[in-house]
């Protein structure tokens, strides 16, 4: 069975990224492991976001109900597994959890939303929805996914003769967000050569440590390539394959 990607599918995927990443702060995410209250708070936020398509077509409620319900169930079991397991399986659980969320959304869009594929969504152009989805995709979800995927590379030893590096909290994540947003914009403008300037500017700020700390240099290169690949994959899928 082939999956139909229509405007409602793009909208629901964008709302999923908004609710599950951008509107879920760190303390709320960590709190779900130990208490039910943060899980309910996240569930309320997720449900509120997923209710927005009902403003376009009230007939969408069965599919949206399945998406919200399955999301809460998956998050509940993920919290149980994290409490019982060790930290080594956290990255695997993260990727499995997100894969299941996306699979449920695509399945519900295929089963419930196909008859109403463009009902009420004619006011939103497909390209606009794709850009919204891409920008949501390349920011906070990229930061969190990169942190999980590269966790085993982050424990490199720091040379003793290297002075302690003072950094502004959250600056690294903001730099990553800006570089990926700029890369996406340059891809949209077909300014492929200019993408190199973005990463050159980023490297200049870290040049001193890159030149003195081999472990950091390798981690930095892996992260930069991962970041670049993340944007390329998102842009190609949304604007070239769909």
Features:
single chain; 242 residues
Unreliable stretches (pLDDT < 50, length at least 5) are: none
Q: Note the total helix count.
A: 11
Calculate the mean pLDDT score and round it. Answer: 86
User: What series of H and E elements makes up the topology?
Assistant: HHHHHHHHHHH
Q: State the shape.
A: globular
Radius of gyration: 20 Å
Main β-sheet: number of strands, strand sense, barrel status? Answer: none
The residue fraction in helices comes out at over 70%
- Strand proportion, as a percent range, falls in under 5%
Number of strands: 0
Structural class: mainly alpha
Intertermini distance: 17 Å
Structural summary, described in words:
The chain has helices spanning 7-22, 26-31, 36-50, 61-84, 90-113, 126-138, 140-149, 171-188, 195-205, 207-212, 214-241. It is mostly helical. It is globular. Helix content is 71%, strand content 0%. The mean pLDDT is 86. The longest helix has 28 residues, at 214-241.
Q: What is the fold's blueprint, element by element?
A:
Elements: H1 7-22, H2 26-31, H3 36-50, H4 61-84, H5 90-113, H6 126-138, H7 140-149, H8 171-188, H9 195-205, H10 207-212, H11 214-241
Helix pairs in contact: 1-3, 1-5, 1-6, 3-4, 4-5, 6-11, 8-9, 8-11
